Amino acid sequence: MPRHSTVMKLPVSTRKQLDRALMRGEMTIDQLHAFIAGCCAPGEDTPSRSAIGRYAAKFNETAKAMRENREMARALAQELGPESLEGEQGRLLVEILRGLVFQAMQQRAGDPDAKFDAGEVAKIARSLKDLSHAMHLEQDFAKRIREEERRKVEEEVRGRVQALGSAQDLRKLTDEELERKISELAAQA
């Protein structure tokens, strides 16, 4: 069972400062060790130079894997095209993509020498693009059906209103006659 890093025992604020310094990449391990020693309170355990070196190496590996996965996600998004990111289908595809990237990242974290097959990425991207296109066609078809139904209902309502008669005819009716006519019209529906 591996030991816990003494770097992980540092206060969160100190670790954040170390992470920022590592992101900038401007310090050597000796400079990082001196920096951390300066951040530690008197009497507080300061991680060793080798502990900081191991932490920096792991940090850099993780950062490299994240950069590679970000590039992979960007390539998949470009392959899918901008229309794939719209609406519910876009949210679903983003979730799928996020899952694929997370899975690749887990594999890489467990085995730093693991390779991600670019051909497999291309197949996945094409499959997601085809799925996106099919979902888009389905949405368009449903929209056309709703539009056609709306037009039919509008025409039916116009016909019923015309069946009531002209505005002048309606003014001549009593309230009871108008109410009866509207009830008859509504009953036809």
Summarize the structure.
The protein is an all-alpha fold. Helices cover 77% and strands 0% of the residues. The mean pLDDT is 75.
Largest sheet: none
Give start-end ranges of low-pLDDT stretches.
none
Structural class: mainly alpha
N-to-C series of helices and strands: HHHHHHH
- Average per-residue pLDDT, rounded, comes to 75
Relative helix content: over 70%
Shape: elongated
Compute the number of helices: 7
Using only C-alpha atoms, the radius of gyration works out to 33 Å
Q: What is the terminal separation in angstroms?
A: 76 Å
Strand content: under 5%
Find the count of extended strands (DSSP E, 2+ residues). Answer: 0
Number of domains: 2
Structure overview:
With 189 residues, the chain is mainly alpha-helical. It has two domains: 1-47, no CATH class; 48-187. The chain is 77% helix and 0% strand. The chain is built from seven helices and no strands. α3 packs antiparallel against α4 (87-110). The model has no long low-confidence stretch (mean pLDDT 75).
